[in-house]
Amino acid sequence: MNLDIAILAIGVLTLLLALIFAVFFIFNHIKTLHKNKVSRSFLDLGISTQRKIVYELFFAVKHLSKNKIGAIITLQRNTLLDSLRTDGVKIDSMINSSLLIAIFHKNSPLHDGAVIIVDDRISYASTYFSVSETTLEDRYGARHRAALGISEVSDAITIVVSEQSGDVIIARDANFFKITNIDSFAEILTKELNSTQANINK
């Protein structure tokens, strides 16, 4: 009788251990899939969310440009950027023009480095990319070199505001495109986010 109970206990214990290992394996598998998943495309976010993202960026960039506040904002697309950046402060906030303006204000501790936007959220602030080794004109500074650098190794779109001139450029596919009329920024950015081809020329 005691032997039967012992055998039953061992069987139950073995089953419990197997169940624990199975749960652990499944949890880690799901975690890995989540970690490695590709960011949603801009088109997947829905019309209302797309418009909100673009117009929050428009209002922020227009203010930054007018006041000559330097900024670099990178929008992640299909290429995951975590392995292509260093440092940074996790923000994880909905995109908001006031927050972006506050981040890049010269007295903000986060104003150096880039903001990364993933889907419809501000993911990181004060993060850094490797700068491009391409020879650029003297009017381009560290932000422009970082924007070009990340555009050379990913499909991300990066917006740069010059603190010297207030000029706004978009970097994508290792090229710059200057925004000559800030009021056209929203339309241009929408087209670029929806584009699947490299059509920005220096």
TrEMBL record:
<protein>
    <recommendedName>
        <fullName>DAC domain-containing protein</fullName>
    </recommendedName>
</protein>
<dbReference type="InterPro" id="IPR050338">
    <property type="entry name" value="DisA"/>
</dbReference>
<keyword id="KW-0472">Membrane</keyword>
<dbReference type="GO" id="GO:0006171">
    <property type="term" value="P:cAMP biosynthetic process"/>
</dbReference>
<dbReference type="GO" id="GO:0004016">
    <property type="term" value="F:adenylate cyclase activity"/>
</dbReference>
<dbReference type="GO" id="GO:0106408">
    <property type="term" value="F:diadenylate cyclase activity"/>
</dbReference>
<dbReference type="GO" id="GO:0005524">
    <property type="term" value="F:ATP binding"/>
</dbReference>
<keyword id="KW-0067">ATP-binding</keyword>
<keyword id="KW-0808">Transferase</keyword>
<dbReference type="InterPro" id="IPR003390">
    <property type="entry name" value="DNA_integrity_scan_DisA_N"/>
</dbReference>
<dbReference type="InterPro" id="IPR014046">
    <property type="entry name" value="C-di-AMP_synthase"/>
</dbReference>
<keyword id="KW-0812">Transmembrane</keyword>
<dbReference type="Pfam" id="PF02457">
    <property type="entry name" value="DAC"/>
</dbReference>
<keyword id="KW-0547">Nucleotide-binding</keyword>
<dbReference type="InterPro" id="IPR036888">
    <property type="entry name" value="DNA_integrity_DisA_N_sf"/>
</dbReference>
<feature type="transmembrane region" description="Helical">
    <location>
        <begin position="6"/>
        <end position="27"/>
    </location>
</feature>
<feature type="domain" description="DAC">
    <location>
        <begin position="35"/>
        <end position="184"/>
    </location>
</feature>
<keyword id="KW-0548">Nucleotidyltransferase</keyword>
<keyword id="KW-1133">Transmembrane helix</keyword>
